[in-house]
Amino acid sequence: MTQTENKPATQETPFVPIEKIVALCKRRGFVYPNSEIYGGVSGIYDFGPLGVELRNNIRRFWWWSMVQLHDNVVGIEGAIITHPRVWEASGHVENFVDRLVDCKNCKRRFRIDHLPPENVVSNRCPVCGGELTEPRTFNLLMETYLGVVEGERMKTYLRGEACQNIYLDYDNVLKSSRMQIPFGICQIGKAFRNEVTPGNFLFRQREFEQWDLQFFVHPSEMQQWFDYWKEKRFEWYKGIINHKDRLHFREHGPDELAHYAKQAFDIEYQTILGWQEWEGIHWRQDWDLSRHSEYSGQDLSYTDPITKEKYIPWIVETSGGVDRTFLNLLIDAYEEEPDTSGKEARTVLRLHPTLAPVKVAVLPLQKNKEELLTTARSIHNKLKRLMVSQYDDVANIGRRYRRQDEIGTPYCVTVDFQTLDDGTVTVRERDHMTQVRVAIDELPAYLLERVTWH
Ligand code: GAP
Question: Which of 90, 182, 251, 445 is such that its CA lies 20 to 30 A from the CA of 259?
């Protein structure tokens, strides 16, 4: 199975209200509000049984595409807590701030960089027109303390961006893995930000997960590698969504660029909330390794083994979010299909089969015939060693198909009376609801071919 080959989406397909995704996630065990029995914590979520399967598939697929398929890319897994000087060197202690204003009338709070320009000029609330307060500055880093003895505890931070570990481990990776420039280091890991305006479900959270590639190059090859990874990442996202017309690049304007950056692009996806950042492709130049060299006193320059040229490598960064991928994929996949027979609409998640949390459901046609149940259980027991399989014999077959459609299961295997005669089963495909008969012996290969990305 390669790029999404599901039913093509059209421009006219309406945008899904976020509330429908939130409700489905809670109802079917994808996402729960964190500490819900205590009233919840804004901007923090837990993932349920189906959510964790989907997240694992998303992570695995990114890792496979970025690390396993590239001979010049390796992976690390860094700690959430680092030495506090890291965040001084990175500039976060000084600059990782949101400037906020409050409406004196309706008490809503806004990030000043999210306000329409006319409201900044008029100093008026975009919702009720009330007067806005003077901007106040908040640092987004989450503080924590190492040690137990009062007075000797060291203040540090939960990492505000996961990529810093990559710069910290760059020299160790270089020395221990026989990599040479150009090469990359990947990581998937949690990041923490005291977002003052968390919201839109998983879109802006306080605890979230990022994936990063930091690709180290000679300065003369920067543009070439920047263009390479920019295109690669765009194609990656395009390959896992149905609504391909809802993906585009947004180039950062000169006022948005960091002083060291020549270019930056966001890959954006369009939802009911408008165009929103999914991943950033950043030109980081020699900023990170130079700063860490300066603050740590360790020389992080690279000596070319052939030319003996010594230089600080430049970096192309591709940095995206596991949670935004999770959310965007659900939004992209969700569809309510009118039922031609006049019954209730079919809710279907058209997730890419490689990413779907459950790959196959095994369903005996009826519960009252023991042979159907034992055959179905035996098929399920074989399949579950190869992929996530569910056995379900509760309710009529139509209802069971609907339950699987709603969680995006690409294939349902039905064991019926013909199975007992000729050893074949019905395989129903989620998107087109087509049915074919497949011999039980051929079932594992038939399904693996369709749920594995290759
Ligand atoms: N190292 C670069 C960096 O951290 P960023 O644009 O701040 O750049 C990269 O974050 C990605 O992390 C974003 O494109 C987004 O997918 C994800 N992300 C950032 N803040 C987030 C938040 N508060 N909640 C969920 N995901 C977030």
Answer: 182
